[in-house]
Records
---
Amino acid sequence: MVAFLKELAIELYDIQAVKFGEFKTKVGLTTPVYFDLRVVISHPKLMLKLAKALWTLVDNPAKVSRICGVPYTALPLATLISVEEKIPMLMKRKEAKSYGTKKLIEGIFLPGENCVIIEDVITSGSSILETVDVLKKENLSVTEAYVLIDREQGGKKNLENHEIKVKSLFVITQLMKYLLEAGKITPEIVKDVDNYLIANRAPSISVQGVPDDRLKLSYSKRAKLTTNPLASKLLELMESKQTNLCLAADLTKMDAILELANIAGPHIAVLKTHVDIIEDFNENFIFRLKELARQHRFLLMEDRKFGDIGNTVSLQYRHGFYKIAEWADLITVHPISGASVVDALKKSLDNITEPRGIFLVAEMSCKGTLTTGDYLKNAVLMAEEASDLVVGFVCQSNLSAQPGLLQLTPGVKLVKSVDGLGQQYNDPQSIINAGADLAVVGRGITDTGNGYLKATLEYKKELWNAYEERINTSNT
Ligand code: 5BU
């Protein structure tokens, strides 16, 4: 087997399925090793060899009744195994069909059937978990995954925590040993990759609906688990003011916003603005708003949703009419441009001594939003891996188990509803149960006929009760 694996490793290297150098990951970070198993389809002989080798890892082939490859790279491998072993295959769609049955799985199966997963490379395990989640929702039994290469960054552990046993043909360190022995790579490369792997462990992952530590922990405990001083301050103030309410002050006159801030201030954690909708904006507004924030102990968030290249966003953040970096504790940023945008924003904070934080917009609340699938997954990964300037992300569901990251959810009203312009509202309890730490409420408070104070207190109470219930229920 060793000789066979060694030969296989060399073949993979020779067709450039395994590359060493400097590469960008999906979220824009640098990695010294890159696997591109997609090229295997151009080498049918090797592809068959890999499929057969993968199948030798299966403990009890007679017990396997379905095979499912994780899209896309593993699909041809799963197909070959299916044909060779005469075991029917299932395919997970990347997105549910938008018409007809809306199903997420193609292929015929019965509830309770045993389905194994085939995957090319495992890093954090998130792709496998996504597939497992979909299969399990259809009542299939899924307990095993077979993988070509394990990058040894924590994915195996993540899957084991979710009761999925993983077997891989290669682990990256062994693969490098074979290539070193064959003279394909140098000891320096091996050392580089080893160092990279140690420094870049994949974060632990929660599958939607599965309780994780984050949901069990109180805000004050989580304040000690953040890397960003502002996130820590925010969690502390949420606990001490007993509020997880972020007020969206979407009013168009300075005085109206200041009046709202003065009334709601003692009961909110964050006041969120869109300064570019204010018709009579001037610097005095910022001065007075900051004073109210200090007096009532809330943070200021400018929901600017920066979404351009690094150089442009750093100019927009620091310069122009609003000089956002000078006063907004927090800002929102679209991850569309990749991780470099966070570095650029960080660089533009020269001479700003107060702590600053970013919420990455991973998922939006509006109907038909494009923040789905890989985009969403990579946005969360970016928040998990990015610099300590990121305090959390905007989302609609529980997307990360990291207790140090705050999950901010807009689209909240006492009753589930829509606004006729695409906005979709969920009620306070369901968004907190779904994993939100901070809830954004705008018109639920500003459009009320009962006065700001009454509405603010009502949302504050609903949201805080839901949080207390969450940590208490999760602890039992
Ligand atoms: P509303 O009045 O509660 O609908 O206001 C919601 C606020 O949150 C508003 O300022 C939006 O710009 C903001 N928002 C949102 O509604 N949905 C999103 O996905 C994001 C921000 Br990101």
Note: The longest strand covers residues 115-122.
---
Amino acid sequence: MALQQGKHAGRLERKVALVTGGASGIGAATARQMLAQGASVALADLQTELGNKLVAELGERARFYTHDVTREADWKRLIASVEADFGGIDVVMNGAGISVPGPIDEVSYEDWQTTMRVNSDGVFLGCKYGVEALRRQGGGSIINISSSLGIRGGAIFAAYCASKGAVRMLTKSVALRCAEEGYEIRCNSIHPGAIDTPMMDAYVGEAPNREAGLAEFGALHPMGRVGRPEEIASVAVFLASDEASYITGAEIPVDGGFCA
Ligand code: NAP
């Protein structure tokens, strides 16, 4: 049976959003803001315990699904489950990702392949099955989380930069195809600068050194600080909403000026 929609006068009222990487960081912040704007949210992630804990807190309009973005069979199962549980899908946010550092003369081929599988193949599958689901719904919005490093190079991130550049161009191809075919599906990419999420842990460590590490990353950005997950989530909410009805194929840096 389809889950009941609550009575919420918000910018995403009556919309159903599927968010990958939804258990943590940017995905979790986006799920919170989408729910606050009246959407129902399906959170998908590898992190089952974290995801279940989060939806227990978020309430009845949120559900968690264990899902690996690199597995095509998982995508087929996920889309079918979300459609059965919520009655359809209006928004797909491809947020799951990993960051494995390594300059070209040090990064292993294995790390390259793992990075491409999660960050590029995962978004490809999300767009492919997302377009199918959104067409069944009569239209919708796809939001791909790339990176400022999908626009600007970074010497120590050979695989990550390439994987996020692929997301940037895939987004435009999806947007053009959907526009030309009249699918009423918009597809855009968001390009965050360094954001204070668990993904940063590997680079900045834990308290008490974490703040100093974040400040070092922040200094690389013209605004002099790293971003907060909520600052990405608010742009995702906008792109998901009908306020963005004429925006497709766009790449939106949310990076304190890093790509300017
Ligand atoms: P995060 O807190 O680590 O969240 C990412 C989530 O995706 C994690 O729960 C992660 O699980 C999950 N995930 C990884 N591989 C997956 C897979 N194969 N299938 C399903 N889920 C998977 O990181 P975040 O900062 O929120 O990152 C969200 C997105 O923003 C990513 O695409 C990232 O590249 C992008 N981004 C982040 C930053 C930043 O500075 N934080 C900057 C630019 C772009 P595990 O923990 O098990 O890996």
Note: Helices lie at 25-36, 48-58, 72-86, 109-137, 158-181, 201-204, 210-218, 229-240.
